[in-house]
Amino acid sequence: EDQVTQSPEALRLQEGESSSLNCSYTVSGLRGLFWYRQDPGKGPEFLFTLYSAGEEKEKERLKATLTKKESFLHITAPKPEDSATYLCAVLGPDDKIIFGKGTRLHILP
Amino acid sequence: NAGVTQTPKFQVLKTGQSMTLQCAQDMNHNSMYWYRQDPGMGLRLIYYSASEGTTDKGEVPNGYNVSRLNKREFSLRLESAAPSQTSVYFCASSPRETREQYFGPGTRLTVT
């Protein structure tokens, strides 16, 4: 069964303390991997799409990378406004999109 | 551009009542989706529409029906609401080619 697992479930960091969030997947024939940010009480907001192993995308303090089995969302020198839940989703060959359960990130000032 | 809009924002139903959740997008996307989000369960796909005139079941379709009214609008109907359908419902749309999804603000539904 295709699965998407995100870790850790929750992460607390001090402002400026860099870290990484993980998204591992078991989908064969990956057609795309997506990262979203979700603030409390709002819908997810699209951040990045990665299509092939070795690909990287950057946006402000965020950088997403992809290998054949997992993706990392690296957060460099985070600020309190980066606090949110980060969701990963994968698109498989059957045209189905599977979401992970997310990582709740809290940046302390 | 408004993006993806959903109505209503909040709704309380009694068990057995029916209602329709409305969704519209102004980005000319071909594909549209309905998800529910529950604590500890993540986003689960209820139904999706790859293009106007087509709909397909997702992971949790039981108790729901959908209508792709036109390219812009995709509605979700609960014929006989049950407490297990208490959740936050999100509509999303995406371009068929790239498939990144754009979400609406959500509808918070409580069934008593």
What's the structural blueprint in terms of helices and strands?
The complex is a heterodimer of chains A (109) and B (112).
Chain A: E1 4-7, E2 10-14, E3 19-25, E4 32-38, E5 45-50, E6 56-59, E7 62-66, E8 70-75, E9 84-91, E10 97-99, E11 103-108
Parallel strand pairs in A: 2-11
Antiparallel strand pairs in A: 1-3, 3-8, 4-5, 4-9, 6-7, 7-8, 9-10, 9-11
Chain B: E1 4-7, E2 10-13, E3 19-25, E4 31-38, E5 42-49, E6 56-57, E7 64-68, E8 74-78, E9 87-94, E10 102-103, E11 107-111
Parallel strand pairs in B: 2-11
Antiparallel strand pairs in B: 1-3, 3-8, 4-5, 4-9, 5-6, 7-8, 9-10, 9-11
Explained architecture:
The complex is a heterodimer of chains A (109) and B (112). Chain A is mainly β and 109 residues long. Chain A is 0% helix and 56% strand. In chain A, the strands form two sheets. In chain A, strands 2, 4, 5, 9, 10 and 11 form a six-stranded mixed beta sheet that branches. In chain A, strand 7 and strand 8 form a beta hairpin. Chain A is globular and about 45 Å long. Chain B has 112 residues and is mainly β. In chain B, 0% of the residues lie in helices and 52% in strands. Chain B has strands at residues 4-7, 10-13, 19-25, 31-38, 42-49, 56-57, 64-68, 74-78, 87-94, 102-103, 107-111. In chain B, strands 2, 4, 5, 6, 9, 10 and 11 form a seven-stranded mixed beta sheet that branches. In chain B, strands 1-3-8-7 form a four-stranded antiparallel beta sheet, with no helix packed on it. The chains are: A mainly beta (109), B mainly beta (112). The interface between A and B is medium-sized, with 21 and 19 residues.
